[in-house]
Structures are given as C-alpha cells and as structure tokens.
Design brief:
Elements: E1 8-13, E2 18-23, E3 26-36, E4 45-53, H1 62-76, E5 80-83, H2 86-94, H3 96-99, H4 108-119
Parallel strand pairs: 4-5
Antiparallel strand pairs: 1-2, 2-3, 3-4
Amino acid sequence: MSEDVDTIEVVDNPAAGAFELRDAGRLIGVARYAVVPASEGRAERVVFFHTEVSQAREGEGLAGRLASAALDQTVAAGRTIVALCPYIKVFLRRHEDDYAGHVAAPQPADLEAVDRAVDG
C-alpha cells in the first residue's frame, strides 16, 4: 500500500455510543458519547465524555482528527455539543470560532445520560 494513501476514517457508531477512528478498518481510537433527546425547544444533545487513541498511534495528530470529525458531524446533524471529556473541552477552546453557537453547558440530564452509557 502506498504511503500517500490516507486510510484513516471517522465513523459514527450509535450502537456503541462512539465515533470510531479507524485505519484501514482497524479501530485505533474512540470518542465516546451519550445522547440526550431533544426537548423543550432544545436540539438533541451529544455529550462527549471520553476520547482516546491507541498508544501505538499517539503523536500523529489523530485525536485532533477524531475530535474534529466527531464535532463536525454532530453540528451537521443539527445536534448540540456538550463537552465533559477533557480532550474535547480543550479542542473546543482551541477551535472556538468553528463551534461557537453549537456548544452548551452540561445539564443534569446530560450527566444522567453519561451515567447510563457508562453503566451500560
């Protein structure tokens, strides 16, 4: 395979509650989330609570690619971003102009959704 071919992709896997970072189909990272349904005139909320990339692939900028794709897909779907994950929080601060107006502060329902997602 040519070194010039980019085999990295980010795929939303709602059943797993994660945006998955894949290299030629192999899972190498995840951005875990929980969804809070739309209510009271508010859009559906995607609560990001954990992001990680395989240790073997650290230092390649892949966490940034994962975060960017996950957040872009969330915004494109008309959903609101809620960041509990420390990495996503930092990413949003660094790219504030790109996501202004699409981020909300955590609410009790967001925390409850994460608890349900983590507890399975």
